[in-house]
Structure formats: C-alpha cells, structure tokens
Design goal:
By secondary structure, this protein is an alpha/beta fold. The protein has one domain: Phosphoglycerate mutase-like (Rossmann fold), CATH 3.40.50. It is 38% helix and 15% strand. Helix 5 packs across helix 6. It is globular. The two termini are 13 Å apart. The relative contact order is 0.25. The mean pLDDT is 93.
Amino acid sequence: MNGKIILVRHGEPDVKIADHISGYEISSFLDYYNNALLKRTSLPSDRLKFLAQNAVVVCSDLKRSLESACFCDVEPLYVDPIFAESIPPHFRSSQIRLSPKSWLIFSRLLWSVGFSKNGESLFEAKKRAQKATKILIDYAMHSDVILFGHGLFNILIAAELRKNNFYGKRVPARKHWEFGVYEKK
C-alpha cells in the first residue's frame, strides 16, 4: 500500500510584526516568532481536520507545528526538528531597517546564491529535506501521513517527493492552513 503524503503549512502565529527592524534584531525576532502560539481565530478547515484524523501525524518540534496538530484534534505520532523551518541567513550588525517580510525576502534571495551567514545553507536545507522526505515516505508505505510543517521547508520536501515519483503541487501551500497532497505515480 502507498498512502498519500499531505504537507500542511501551520496555522497563523499570534505575532505582532514590527514596522521595521535592523539586521541585528532579526535573531530576536526569529526567537519571538518561533515561540509564538497560534491565533485563536486561525482555524483549520473541516476537510483538513478529517485528513489529519485519518493519517499518521508528523510535526516539527516548533510550537506552531505542534499546536496546529492540536487545532485539528490530533496527537502527533512523530515529532522531529528535522521538519523545522530553515533558519534564514541574516546579518547581526546591519543598521539598515526593513520590515521583517522584506528582510526575509532579501535573505532568501541571498540564500539562493549561497549566502548562509548565521543560518542554514541552502545545501544543508536540501540535504535535511532529503532525510525528512525519506521518513515521510517510510510512513506512507503503510498509511496516509500528514506533516504540519513550514512554508519554505515544505517546498523543499515537495521537490524531493516529486524526485521520488510522487505527484502534487510544486508549492504545497502559500497561506496558513493550506496544504498539498502527494501521491505515488
């Protein structure tokens, strides 16, 4: 049996986004974001709850992943930091002030051309995605599996799934609570 692999972007964190932060504030902003609980008004669809309740549940060790499973009334069977979002490269001394979203876009652009200072390199993230994908495929050999994951890292996992003869969307989810379903060809 080959089950489906469902990649979910976690629910929306309850964070107050500063207008602008400097490069040296990015690290503390990431800590703040990673420790945030979900907004109580950000709820999963009934379809997502149904899928989660009928699958092996996998989460990263970040609060927003674990809490997303709780919002779907399920307990994770497997929790591992291998599924956590990649830490974006960032500067620790820049006085330039940008919005957190602009910093993220800027750092991801630099990341794509090899910059990895104070974060995980793209090469390391892809290697981690390969290992994470193998775990999901192993679970999917017996049952459907759902990962309450993270935007960018889910994209890397989706790419690995497609390399392993699964079909599904290139980008599993752009918004919170969205998901992509991957099935073996």
